[in-house]
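Hi all, long-time lurker, first post. I run a small reading group and we've been trying to get comfortable going from sequence to structure in the token notation. Rather than ask abstract questions, I figured I'd post a concrete chain and ask someone more experienced to write out its structure so we can walk through it together at our next meeting. Sequence below, copied exactly:
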Amino acid sequence: MTQARETVRQPRKGRGAMTLADVSRLAGVSAITVSRALNTPELVSAATREKVRLAVERTGYVPNLLAGGLASNRSRLVAAMVPTIAGPVFLETVQSLTETLAASGYQLLLGQSGYDHSREDALIDAMVGRRPDGIVLTGIMRSAGGRRRLIASGIPVVETWDLTPTPIDMLVGFSHERVGAAMAQYLLGKGRRRMALVTGDDQRARERCDSFQRTLRAAGMSEAPVCTVPAPTTLAGGREALVRLLQAHPQIDALACSSDALAHGAIIEAQVRGIDVPGRIGVMGFGDLAFARHAHPAITTVHIDGDAIGRQAARFIVERGDDASVGRPKVVDIGFSVVERASA
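-- Answer (accepted) --
Happy to help. Here is the structure in token form:
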């Protein structure tokens, strides 16, 4: 006798994806039983759960999380916006944000805004329109329109990697103004008097640069010459910047860079030219990326705990989701530290 084979009917053209009803028919149980097996399995017998599991596996069915989110008013999604994924400076924050959210049942959607405020506004509109359970921003929302839309949305918002007395909602970061001052004070303390700056053209790097200059003026010194390069900054940008600075200001004895990549590039260019680092020129970076301690010479830099920023931002979102009455605004200043190494 020939045994009949049970087949799974594929969706007809134009019909769309497999549905809960398809799983229900194949499993031989009601649609509500399938829903319970997927969402509250403790309410369903082990035998029924296995039937549903096999049916899901055979159909390739993926639950409609949006429909479930509409019923519960929770999407379990958090949207995060970073300027770039081309450089590694924000990756530690994204990784810890992803892992901490996942531990509480949330998934992270990542958007890349670049350093253009108009692109930032467009990405905000796209995020708000999808009604995530939280939005995490890299930096402070400086667009008045974007700020208004975020406040009006009612979605929990965490601004990161910066400080402001007027956060939209919650904030975890550090003061770029204080970083700039600390870099200038460090180099002054090392006896450097003919300093120059290599800075990206993004807002946070400019804040550090401006603070560096104010600190020099407060010490009775002239402002340092500045070479501005496009963000995201690169090793090549650091090499080219040192060339330009040496041509215009050959007597410089220290270089403060807005990223470790720029600092590394400047060190390489100095070595190519036979310029001793730190003897002739001290070089200082920002970010304390993984390669900084392994460069030759190892790079003096400013350490930012990106991992802590990501963890705290995730906790803010989860806490707000668990208890909507959590007070606002909440601000955490994680601070920073100057890491002295051989380059300065």
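A couple of things your group might point at:
Residues 37 and 44 are 6 Å apart (CA to CA).
Residues 1-15 have pLDDT under 50 and may be disordered.
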